[in-house]
Design goal:
Blueprint (H helix, E strand, L loop, with lengths): L1 E2 L2 E2 L3 H33 L13 H18 L1 H11 L4 E7 L6 H14 L5 E5 L2 E6 L2 H13 L6 E7 L1
Antiparallel strand pairs: 1-2, 3-5, 3-6, 4-5
């Protein structure tokens, strides 16, 4: 049996032919459905009078979208800068207080103070029993970890969860 160049010996080609036929039939059915719908909407008689929406929300949303599109066309550099800033990687690491002593909050405050006094470009925040340190530069973050390993905070520290 040979259909369109494919023989029964080549079942892979037969599947592609069957798939093409099914796709063509689906396209014909969809075209008939949507063309009938368009004809009914555009060429049929009007059923009721047009009522304008009194809500200004859609008009405001439309105007804002137009303003953003036109603004992006006129000032593309501003939009590119915002997109680049949004795409910057933020690195973080957790500094955990090793022993759960009663003075862990004070130790966490000492860690944050030492990090802030170092003038590194990192942000430190106390989060429960650990200090989360974030930075845009992995080098700054590694320098902060090295600083904490050299410092004497009074309690042992664990460094975990370094991620981008």
């Amino acid at each position: 049996v040979q259909i369109g160049g494919a023989t029964a010996d080549e079942p892979g080609k037969m599947w592609f032919l069957a798939l093409a036929i099914v796709g063509a039939l689906n396209a014909a059915i969809a075209a008939a459905y949507y063309l009938r719908l368009i004809a009914k909407m555009c060429f049929g008689p009007a059923t009721n009078a047009f009522v304008e929406n009194a809500n200004p929300g859609p008009k405001v949303a439309w105007a804002l979208c137009v303003a953003v599109v036109v603004g992006a066309g006129i000032f593309p550099g501003m939009m590119q800068a915002q997109a680049q800033r949004a795409g910057e990687r933020i690195y973080s690491a957790d500094v955990a207080i090793a022993n759960k002593a009663a003075g862990e909050k004070e130790a966490a405050k000492k860690v944050v103070k030492e990090i802030k006094d170092s003038k590194l470009k990192v942000q430190a925040a106390i989060n429960d029993d650990l200090v989360r340190v974030t930075s845009k530069s992995i080098d700054e973050l590694q320098e902060c970890i090295a600083l904490m390993k050299r410092s004497n905070v009074g309690v042992p520290l664990q460094f975990t969860n370094m991620r981008a």
